[in-house]
Prior knowledge:
The complex is a heterodimer.
Chain A: H1 16-22, H2 33-44, H3 52-59, H4 61-69, H5 78-85, H6 88-91, H7 94-101, H8 114-141, H9 145-157, H10 167-179, H11 187-195, H12 198-203, H13 227-236, H14 246-255, E1 259-261, H15 264-267, E2 274-276, E3 286-288, E4 291-293, H16 298-310, H17 312-326, H18 333-345, H19 350-358, H20 361-364, H21 376-387, H22 395-403, H23 421-424, H24 427-442, H25 457-468, H26 474-481, H27 485-493
Antiparallel strand pairs in A: 1-2, 3-4
Chain B: H1 3-10, E1 18-20, E2 39-45, E3 55-56, H2 61-66, E4 82-83, E5 89-90, H3 98-102, E6 106-113, H4 121-130, H5 142-149, E7 159-162, E8 176-179, H6 194-203, H7 209-234, H8 244-258, E9 264-269, H9 284-303, E10 310-316, E11 336-341, E12 350-351, E13 372-373, H10 374-385, H11 390-396
Parallel strand pairs in B: 1-8, 2-9, 2-10, 6-12, 6-13, 7-8, 7-9
Antiparallel strand pairs in B: 3-5, 4-5, 6-11, 10-11
Amino acid sequence: MTAVIRPDKRRAWLPVLVAAVLFPLSVSAWASSDAQALHVLNRLAFGPAPGDVQRVANMGVDQYIQQQLHPDSMPLPEALQQQLASFATLQRSPTELFAQYGPQPHPRGEKPTPAERKALRQRARVILQQAAEARLLRAVESPRQLQEVMTAFWFNHFNVFAGKGLDYLWIGSYEQRAIRPYALGHFRDLLFATAKSPAMLFYLDNWLDTQPGTPHAKGRFQGINENYSREIMELHTLGVNGGYTQTDVTTLAHILTGWGLCPPRGFFSRPSGFCFDPQRHDFNSQVFLGSEIAGGGQREIQQALAMLADSPVTARHLSYELAQYFVADHPPSALVERLTQQWLHSDGDIAAVLDTLFHSPEFWSAHYTGNKFKTPYEYVISMVRASGQPLTNVQPLLGMMARLGMPLYGCLTPDGYKNTRGVWLNPDAMMMRLSFATALGYGNLRLDSNGMRPEKPEQRVTQLFDTLRGLFTPQEIVKIDSQPLPLRAGLILGSPQFQYR
Amino acid sequence: MNRREFLQHAALVSGATLVALGTRGWAARLSDAIAGNRRLIVIFLRGAVDGLNVVVPYADDRYYQARPTIAIPKSGQDNGALDLDGYFGLHPALAAVLPLWQNKSMAFVQASGSPDPNRSHFEAQAYMETGAPGDTAVSSGWMNRLLGALPGPHAPTEALSLGTALPRIFTGPNPVSNLPLGRNAGHPMPIDRPRVADAFDALYQGNTMVDQVFHQGQQARSELMMDLQQDMADSYNGAPSVIGFANDTQRLAKLMAGDASIRLAFLSVGGWDTHVSEGSAQGQLANHLQALGQGLAALIQGLGSLYQDSVILVMSEFGRTFRENGNAGTDHGHGNVMWLLGGQVNGGKVYGDWPGLSDDQLYQNRDLAVTTDFRQVIGTLLSRHLRLADAGLAQVFPDGLGAGVNLSALLKA
């Protein structure tokens, strides 16, 4: 197979029809259209749900890819929309959440007692609960699977820890407002959305970043805080070997002074909660990454962030990450290079880069299929999807992710969770995975709070085999079928094959 | 597993694999295979602990000028530093380990750290764990290479990692065991039922990594379940600690005390990245140090007589800024303090070449300088405590030990 460079595609949705013609695969390389369908479902989705393989095989994998790259073309099912609409905290703006669930001002300026603070946090737990429910329901049931895959990917890339300070308030709105809408959009928009989100401003302390000696440099706002400046370059954009220096970190921290949260009194004036305070900003001109940036408040900040977003170093760093997620733990450098070119060519259009990736020979190479070991998140979601069980109670899933070392919204450090096998494949984790698969296979997990029990074991096993048949050789199917009936569903979900995507 | 996947994994099987085990290892069976009883436990404080508030230069006024709200009060004052040598004092939240200083089994190396100026947590940790700062060609961890350099034959339980994920420091060609942590680690699971285990066993008969790891998991699980029954019988004596870290170190101690083959152990603990509201004698850092101190005390108590032959090394990726920042916290810095505890340590002394705290003595006019490369400290430990020969040392630290004063007095001969 040869490398295919896609023609200039600034807007990726135009050539949907053309794409079928350009599609580079020699179909003969693949045993069947079912196998192709299973592959794209494993990578662009969280694995197949009942009926998916047949549906995708019938429509053709390229049609499926184009649909997934343009999620707005697919409506969410009515039932899912209703469930999502019932999560009130997800409809609230950051300022509303702060007002309703944040620290309450005391009339006489006293500090709240520890007991009061605890009560408030208890009350606010509904926010995290609803964010987690919405995330998992979408991951399991949304037809816009790639959007959910990329939402998880970008949330992790721009990780925020729910347990830090006030971030318990904003974790859901962060995902809803700053991540999901841009998950397949332009990287620059995504970077700016995260940069202006209260969740990120709080998590990486930029809300405190203040030029000493400015009129508003008082109280908590005493000086430079370079936490965000460092991580935005090291993790979010250029990457750790991205050629910046400690001086660039400090300079960016000066550029970013005043870029923060609205003060509590003015907080309610802006739904977003983001405010720039010129009275804490350093208006000096700066030399950042070798370029002169004239002092100018927000304009200069936007200039610096755009420099980072548009840098070829960023393009390469993110292309590597995408290739690592979608192709291999050690992605082939030729692919990374082509993605980098497409990234630069398309002005950081994530859907366009993914389009190139999904049509690359590497993505379709037998060497790189079924080779990505599922993270705990992917494993749990893919099991529930394959089982086709109705999901109204996500608690068992959240518990399992936590026990496997990947609690949802619980990654403490800004580098997020890894998606490479070395990190997740170990003896203890395998025992937990198989135990979870067994319980799910038995129908013992109470995933449906309405008390609906899944179908009889025979039906469950038949349906799972229908959904996942492509994973097994006939001999392996015989092996599973020789085991006691109640165990078979769990064996399918706990099989070595199902640990990979 | 198909043939393609097998081939793909075959090359990786020689890579480090974690072998889980319960609190009763296989080890007793192999106890005398390894010469010597010397052990090394490394505790990594992830997030960069503020070493200047751990071993506090309380006799230098510049310290108080630089840290108006977070300095630890002078020794002798309320909540003051616990005096060590008239110049340095220990953070008062570490009172649990002060007796070790007094019985001369605890020492510090101030102004130590990595020569690499990187202030990224992740990069700096990686370099400290590979033992080759700035050298991206070295990807395995120094503790894994150490395992290879120690005289064999090697028991599978010789190196132990606490927690479920394999840390960088242990990645490499030699196998490493792991011990799951946390309250639920020993609860019975479906896989513990023989019928379920046998059924999966039939599926995991391939030669790939996932098959191997499955079998390691099964073996470990059965040992753990046996132990659990013993644990429940024991748990009536003495109340369990409320602090998670002390629970973990107690389990580690119990495991090492019951298993002669464990020579190297590693665990890490986070929560040290105090950019905001670090606190002084009380507060965020104090709370964490208190838990750490109690965990160390529990570890040492649990090791019992083994403590005589053990060294516990406590380290962190870099120090923090000398001056406090605008948020009553500290940002990423450079030099830090390393801790050594154990019967073989010539304790009661702060080692290292103290660079001073004036503006021109600080690294880049902001951080404590590094005058002792962390590899000097570890190298001394390996050669004098674990009796590693020079060739072995070169294997563990292929880029040498870096700069620093002679530390041979740090350990007893």
